[in-house]
Amino acid sequence: MTLHNNPAAFASTLETDAPPYAPGEPLTDDQVDALIDHIMRRYHDVHLEDFPQALALAHRVEAVHAGDAECPHGLADHLQMMAEDLIGHQQKEEEVLFPMMRAGRGSMLRVAIARMQVEHGELNEQLTRLETLTKDFSAPEGACGTWRALSQLCRKLDRELREHMRLEDTILFPHFSGVL
User: How far apart are CA 54 and CA 75, in angstroms?
Assistant: First the structure.
């Protein structure tokens, strides 16, 4: 039995963070709803929790280690900008895009998806900058616990934002491309 024919099995794969569905295979309405719910719960909510923590750590590391040549100068500002962009992006998804998807195929869906894909490209650039600022998400040898925690949290943000975009770009958005 494929996941396509079994919405309950599809939903359970989402809970384990396993790849929820093969790219290119059509989703049922229930699977679209389950995937949207998963994205909001597993990614939107978690991002909103993680960014304030990362910002607090970055501010502390930059203040305490300002004189250290390896200090990630500008990281707090970059994280702040990313957080603000992400909040706006997620609001557009939650208030416009996802309701349009749940309601069926609207003529404006193509425009909304295209806008989200542009923003995903911008986020990829921001993640590349994040990786550079954090020197590939690694604290220097002998770094304090705060700096190590910051590096780990930035790595987590990078990994989860990329997975979030992958689910939308390769599974959710293509589902609607043939019906627009």
Answer: 10
For the chain, what is the total number of helices (H) and then of strands (E)? 8, 0
Cα 30 to Cα 8: distance, rounded to the nearest angstrom: 9
pTM of the model: 0.85
Distance CA 86, CA 109 (A): 20
Cβ(147)–Cβ(61) below 8 Å: yes
Q: Where are the domains of the chain?
A: 26-177
pLDDT in tens, 19-71: 456 776 778 888 999 999 999 999 999 999 999 999 999 999 999 999 999 99
Q: What is the pLDDT of residues 1-18, one digit of tens each?
A: 334 444 444 444 444 454
Q: Exposed e or buried b for every residue in 3-27, given b needs 16+ CB within 10 A? A: beeebeebbebbeeeeebbeeeeeb
H-helix or E-strand containing 42? Answer: none
Please, what is the Cα angle at 68 between 145 and 147, to 5 degrees? 20
